[in-house]
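Our working data are protein records whose layout never changes between entries. Instead of coordinates, the fold is spelled out as a row of discrete tokens. Here is such a record, shown just as it appears in the course material:
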Amino acid sequence: MNQDQIAAPLQQMGRIMLIRHGRTAENKQSYVGWKDIPLSPAGVEQARAVAVRLAEERIDAVYSSPLSRALATACPLAEQRGLSVRVRDALREIDYGQYQGMLKSERKLRLKKQHLFLPLPGGESLFDVYQRVEQLLAELYADLIAARHLAIVGHFWSNRMLVGAISQLPFTEIFSRSGYRPETGSMFEIAYRVDADQAIQVVTSGRMDEQSKRIAQ
């Protein structure tokens, strides 16, 4: 067999559409964290805009945080396709502990400076969030090596940690090498390649559009 007859290694392409839930009445005012509050009217419109934007996109599975604001954003995507939402605790927002529900005007939390590894009183550190989304990625491995197209609905910090983990960035480099700061209702696409040896490599990543952000303004 000559060189021209040797087939190139098979590569498959998959996608992850990482979505932050729609807006709530408290997102801008307080540290919401694990507090379970519904979408505001603007947030409901953002969730609808996400569903419209992704209506023609291939989505093989929908994963979501168990918090109602995330589920209300994920359910329309799943219902369009006759899928069930796969709820995972690992996608929850950071647990703010004793600061949960506190007005941001009352106390300025500097998570990246003071709580990278040190948990918030009664809550979590950013590294705790990173560790749980890493565990979720291990669970998703079968989906990823099958090059499936996934929609994942989470929160500000859990989504940031997930982008870093998918990109195989060390935890301490996430904030210096990733400019991803998800707005409510935003969609971030990661295209990845699965090599013949089942190694997963990110090919491209970036915001999908600004539609749902404009709705809430």
Notes: The mean pLDDT is 90.
